[in-house]
Amino acid sequence: MTVTTPQEPRTATPIANSLTAGRLPASAPWVILGVAMAVSAALFAIVGFAAGAGFDWGGAIAVGGLLYIPSIWIFSRLVEGARRATDRLVTALVTAAFVLAMIPLISLAITVITLGASRFDVEFFTSSMRNVTGEGGGALHAIVGTLLMTGTAAIISIPIGLLASIYLVEYGRGRLAQGITFLVDVMTGIPSIVAGLFAYALFAIFFGPGVRLGIAGAIALAVLMIPVVVRSSEEMLRLVPNELREAAYALGVPKWLTILKVVLPTSIAGITTGIMLSIARVIGETAPLLIAAGFTQSMNYNLFEGRMSSLPVFVYTQYANQGNPPEAYLDRAWAGALTLILIVMALNLIARLIARFFAPKFGR
């Protein structure tokens, strides 16, 4: 008879893993950041008191951020291991880069809002600068000119850019498509003043030298918009799955109807977003409009007759040609800059709303 002795239970050997060895508390990064800021503030306070100067808040915050990055890495390395320490170090560097990128944007927004709010009134939006040499006046003529020239540029460039992108994606093969792609790439990088010189030279051929017209400014903006529309629309059309095209072809749908009924509706949200962003990009151009359309102090609703002002040129002329008192001209310049930023912001919001509402719904 065989007698079996009970075996002792085996104890699992713990596995040394840097992911489970230890972890800092959730509040540890904030505590380390606060200590780093406090140390930096103390150092700057001592230096400022010794030098007889004021406290430098910007320098204290910057040095505190620089102290935080190696500190979080050291504490994480001691407690959590090398892997998590590297992750926290990269996270701190990315966060610091984001903060550095946001500082100029926030500073610009605060400066424009603070200095432009003084003339952000009803008179600024209901009157022009005709017969105004000092205080008062407004930018109605510049706002109307900006809307007219930008709208005309959009009417010219959107069909050309969209049709060119459809040709490149759906039909373009060989050297012709390569040549168009090369020219679009070249046009994307041309300086804006070159577009203004082109529009001025084009109209000078027919109307003589020295001509300044609103339609010339619209042509200059259209030259800048077309490559942006082509590139953005081309990328959106390439994202449409080929299975959708093949399904339409299998049902006997012609290619042009497939593009019209399948490809364009699927990519309409991205195309619309790209178009709105291209408009926002050219609406703030100054050099081409200053050359092609010129500037005026009076209202002008006709693109084909006389000079036409725009908001960027209005801001430039108010700042460059200051009169008496100069504060009135600077206030109008800052108010015009604030108006232009609000228009660009509105266009971006409209683009996001269109992208959300017109995006294809994949759920049942």
From TrEMBL:
Cellular component GO terms, alphabetical: plasma membrane
Keyword terms: Cell membrane, Membrane, Phosphate transport, Transmembrane, Transmembrane helix, Transport
Entry keyword annotation includes Transport: yes
PROSITE patterns named among the record's database cross-references: ABC_TM1 (PS50928)
ABC transmembrane type-1 domain location: 143-351
Transmembrane portions of the chain: 30-51, 57-78, 90-118, 138-168, 180-207, 213-230, 262-283, 333-355
GO MF entry, a single one: phosphate transmembrane transporter activity
Membrane topology according to the record: Multi-pass membrane protein
Keyword Protein biosynthesis on entry: no
Entry-linked InterPro entries: MetI-like, MetI-like_sf, Phosphate_PstA, Phosphate_transprt_permease
UniProt subcellular location: Cell membrane
GO BP: phosphate ion transmembrane transport
Family, per entry: Belongs to the binding-protein-dependent transport system permease family. CysTW subfamily.
PANTHER family xrefs: PHOSPHATE TRANSPORT SYSTEM PERMEASE PROTEIN PSTA
Record's function text: Part of the binding-protein-dependent transport system for phosphate; probably responsible for the translocation of the substrate across the membrane.
Protein's name in the database: Phosphate transport system permease protein PstA
Organism lineage string: Bacteria, Bacillati, Actinomycetota, Actinomycetes, Micrococcales
